[in-house]
């Protein structure tokens, strides 16, 4: 029986809001619910997925598939977390070397090969972002609870509507619960879309980045990890009760430090 693949693009109106971190950790969280997931770095000119996961340079990338040199599945690499990743090439020589519109030919080749394809789109409203929107079934918009980020998120939503890409909802990232950030209600009112999850600002995310692994993998019970899992459950229509970590010694981060003799 052929798999009915779900294509989700992760977008943001501006850089620096945690879009790539969200794409990676959502992918790992979905895989923990038993789904096979392929994460595609659809940011062709400034890709970051490989940098986040410690594989910045690999022999075959999405660029090779878009150029017709290799199959897109040849560019898929398995991360220890169980997530399959298709990175883009980070070399400056590859800037503007491929036509983003080729994604409409290459990305659909993943139909039937996996349960979920997550596209980590480029930030902003460029051609890469619009091309990713056109091949996706739905879009999740990542933003911070600040006026500039939310305003740019609104622009992305409007462009997605014109491209015929359904905007499932908003992911509010780096929540600090201070007096200076926008409330969930205000964000929903401006963007006219539901906030699916509000992910707390968590120092464990930065720790995981140093280890070049997703926080869901290194710190499974950290607050951010639990929220990513809750988001995954929401998207799958499943129930998930968050269990926040109380003891840092149970985290993968400490286990890695011990193996290195650093703790």
Average residue pLDDT: 93
Q: Report the CATH superfamily.
A: P-loop containing nucleotide triphosphate hydrolases
For the largest sheet, list the strands in their spatial order. Answer: 3-4-2-5-1-6-7-8
Helix and strand content put the structural class at: alpha/beta
The quaternary structure here is: single chain
Biggest sheet statistics = 8 strands, mixed
- Helical run tally: 11
The run of helices and strands is EHEHHEEHEHEHEHEHHHH
**CATH topology title:** Rossmann fold
Q: What is the level 1 CATH name?
A: Alpha Beta
Rg, Cα atoms, Å = 18 Å
- Silhouette: globular
Q: Total domains, how many?
A: 1
CATH architecture title: 3-Layer(aba) Sandwich
Report, as a whole number of angstroms, the end-to-end distance. Answer: 49 Å
Give the amount of beta strand, in percent: 15-25%
How many beta-strand runs? 8
Q: How much helix is in the residues?
A: 25-40%
Notable characteristics:
8 strands; alpha/beta; 37% helix; Rossmann fold; 263 residues
Structural notes for this entry:
With 263 residues, the chain is an alpha/beta fold. It has a single domain, classed as P-loop containing nucleotide triphosphate hydrolases (Rossmann fold), CATH 3.40.50.300. It contains 11 helices and 8 strands. The longest helix has 17 residues.
């Amino acid at each position: 029986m052929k798999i009915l693949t779900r294509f989700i693009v992760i977008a943001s109106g501006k850089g620096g809001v945690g879009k790539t971190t969200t794409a990676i950790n959502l992918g790992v969280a979905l895989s923990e619910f038993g789904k096979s997931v392929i994460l595609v770095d659809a940011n062709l000119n400034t890709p970051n997925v490989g940098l986040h996961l410690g594989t910045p340079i690999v022999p075959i990338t999405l660029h090779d598939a878009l150029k017709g040199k290799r199959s897109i599945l040849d560019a898929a690499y398995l991360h220890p977390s169980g997530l399959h990743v298709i990175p883009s090439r980070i070399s400056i020589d590859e800037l503007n070397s491929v036509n983003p519109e080729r994604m409409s030919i290459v990305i659909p080749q993943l139909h039937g090969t996996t349960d979920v394809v997550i596209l980590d789109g480029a930030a902003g409203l460029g051609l890469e972002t619009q091309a990713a929107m056109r091949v996706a079934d739905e879009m999740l918009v990542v933003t911070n609870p600040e006026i500039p980020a939310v305003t740019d998120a609104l622009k992305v939503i409007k462009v997605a509507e014109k491209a015929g890409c359904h905007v499932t909802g908003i992911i509010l990232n780096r929540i600090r619960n201070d007096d200076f950030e926008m409330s969930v209600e205000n964000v929903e009112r401006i963007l006219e879309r539901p906030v699916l999850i509000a992910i707390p600002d968590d120092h464990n995310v930065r720790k995981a980045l140093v280890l070049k692994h997703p926080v869901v993998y290194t710190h499974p019970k950290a607050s951010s990890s639990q929220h990513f899992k809750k988001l995954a459950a929401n998207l799958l229509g499943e129930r998930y009760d968050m269990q926040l970590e109380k003891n840092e010694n149970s985290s993968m981060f400490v286990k890695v430090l011990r193996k290195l003799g650093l703790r």
